[in-house]
Design goal:
By secondary structure, this protein is an alpha+beta fold. The protein has one domain (7-242): Class II aldolase/adducin N-terminal domain (L-fuculose-1-phosphate Aldolase). 39% of the residues lie in helices and 14% in strands. It contains eight helices and eight strands, in the order H-E-E-E-E-H-E-H-H-E-H-E-E-H-H-H. The protein has helices at residues 7-25, 85-97, 110-116, 127-130, 149-157, 177-199, 209-218, 232-242; strands at 35-39, 46-49, 65-68, 73-75, 103-107, 136-138, 162-165, 169-174. Strand 3 (65-68) and strand 4 (73-75) form a beta hairpin. The radius of gyration is 18 Å and the shape is globular. Residues 14-195 form the Class II aldolase/adducin N-terminal domain.
């Protein structure tokens, strides 16, 4: 861990590394691709991102690359590894526009990509899906290396915490790492359920709009609690039993 790292940044690095290692355990990683970024505490323009070349299960607190929103590398302990430009474009767009966001997760999961290719988008089939009643959509513009796409991406996201990148994958933007992981887990499960249900070929039972609206309201972070915070210690215990060492 860099000697210039504050205690607050160290904790963010540990949680971020844990989040990376949890993703493959729940089937939400894609070889060395995709990214989870976290804002460096006390800054408006610095984020932590994974080096391009490590798998999620290899990530540690000390292997994070610190960059600014201009794409300049401020600290990179990984010899011969850079960052993925497409990841920088997507994540810097959200962090730059949304100062309420502390963590952004983007995935290319099988179910997420499948739903992203469905014209009707995410359907409110279960209470997990109803949590995403207001999910946003961003049309595919090819591999995200064009800086001009950032403006359109953040416009499409608006003030929501989840978005489907059409013909591409999923994205969540939350105030903290625990909340972001929890939101992505729910979104992934909603996509898997939809693929399974539609693939069954059986008639689908759709709930009423009244029930959808009520369920969505009950899952808002301002209604009962901020989902993810209560669950995070359990997730860390789960990880410690399976893939410790992320805090190194």
């Amino acid at each position: 861990m860099t000697a210039r790292c504050s205690e607050q940044e160290r904790q963010i690095r540990i949680d971020l590394a844990a989040c990376y290692r949890l993703m493959p355990l729940f089937g939400m990683s894609d070889l060395i691709y995709n990214h989870i970024t976290a804002r460096v505490p006390g800054t408006d323009d610095e984020i932590l991102i994974n080096p391009y070349g490590l798998m999620y299960e290899e990530m540690t607190a000390s292997s994070m690359v610190k960059i600014n929103l201009n794409g300049d590398i401020l600290d990179n302990p990984n010899k011969d590894m850079d960052i993925n430009k497409a990841g920088y474009v997507i994540h810097s767009a959200v962090h730059g526009a949304r100062h309420d966001v502390g963590c952004v997760i983007h995935t290319h999961s099988r179910a997420g990509m499948a739903v992203s290719a469905m014209k009707q988008g995410l359907l409110p089939l279960t209470q997990t899906s109803m949590r995403f009643r207001d999910i946003r959509y961003h049309d595919y513009e090819s591999v995200a290396v064009d800086l001009e796409e950032r403006e359109r991406l953040v416009q499409d996201l608006g003030d929501q915490d989840a978005m489907i990148l059409r013909n591409h994958g999923l994205l969540v933007a939350s105030s903290s790492i625990p909340e972001a992981f929890n939101t992505m887990y729910w979104l992934e499960m909603a996509c898997r359920v939809q693929v399974d249900a539609l693939g069954s070929g059986l008639e689908i039972n759709m709930p009423s709009q009244e029930v959808i609206d009520k369920t969505h309201y009950l899952y808002l972070p301002t209604t009962r609690r901020r989902f993810g915070l209560l669950e995070w210690p359990a997730m860390l215990r789960y990880l410690d039993r399976r893939n410790p060492g992320y805090a190194d």
